[in-house]
Amino acid sequence: MTSAIDTEHGRRTYSAYAHPLWRRLLVTRESAIIGLLFLVVIVATFAVPNFDSPLTLTFLIREIAPILLIALPMTLIIITEEIDLSVASIVGLSSVITGLGVQAGWPLPFAAVVAILVGTVAGSINGALVTFVGLPSLAVTIGTLALFRGIAVGLLGTTAISDFPEFWTDLTRMNIPGTPMPLIIVPFLVLAIIFGVLLHFTPFGRSLYAIGLNKEAAAFSGINVGLTKFWLFVMSGAVSGYAGVYFTLLYNNARGDNATGLELQIIAAVLLGGVSIFGGRGALPGVIAGVLLIGTLSSALRLAGVTSDIINVITGVLLVASVVSASFLAWLRTKRVAAIGRKKGRAEASDG
Q1: Does the keyword S-adenosyl-L-methionine apply (predicted)?
Q2: CATH number for the 24-304 domain, one of 1.10.3470, 3.90.1150, 3.40.50, 1.10.10?
Q3: DSSP class per residue in 259-327
Q4: By CB distance 3.0 to 4.6 Å, which of 134, 240, 290, 303 could disulfide with 269?
């Protein structure tokens, strides 16, 4: 068997060197974030008044739903060593398109579809500039962040549209019957399953890790690196467009500056969830736990009377700590491998 030691030839196979399954599942950054999330929930339940109220869970999920949604495609993008800073401005643009459509007399579902299509087009613009023109995603999405936000504000000006059909605004605030869970959790779970299967159980997902680790090697192995990244940005734009429709109906407000700064919370949650900013590493369960951790911590601190400025500082510290810890652990692994190599070399020299 391949997992056994080849005693006849004195060789050990790759799987003989592998860690036990429990260690591969539990001793990871993702499991550490999930454990930290449970710790924060337990501490907040006993230390913060009203934190254990069902209403707290309801408002928490409603508030972080756009972050949960957009974090799914953002995870795939960062795994390939790219980034999309324009997602929040696409949310704002989608919000404006939804509002203008309803104001023009369009049925809300039609306005929502148009808004999602606009988000998809915006994502394809990012993807084309990054993959076909060859520009760095950081520079491209900083530019389109300003471009899409400027278009949104230019279309609506300083006014706001808040006259949306009551049925649809009530739907975004509705809970699953008999539970405190908002209805938005259903489309999120559907998308999470789709993205999870795509990333972790398909050749396409494995190609994303290969691109993040070494895009030249990935290209030589037959992966179409450019086209793969293009579709990731298209997915990001489409999901951001959908998040913009939800954002608009939840707050009954279409404005060009909706969701300003949301991209920083999304990226912080993704990196905190174990995705490497250098690409090639990460898993969706950790990202979802990272979003929930930031949302839970913010909710608990607000209930405890902490100001939003302090909450932003804490979120920033968590983000920096996650990046630094990832680099530190990578450095430790490198040193350990080098030490094992030196030890093996000395042993072979002494045997000779």
Answers
A1: no
A2: 1.10.3470
A3: TTTHHHHHHHHHHHTT--TTSS---HHHHHHHHHHHHHHHHHHHHTT--HHHHHHHHHHHHHHHHHHHH
A4: 290
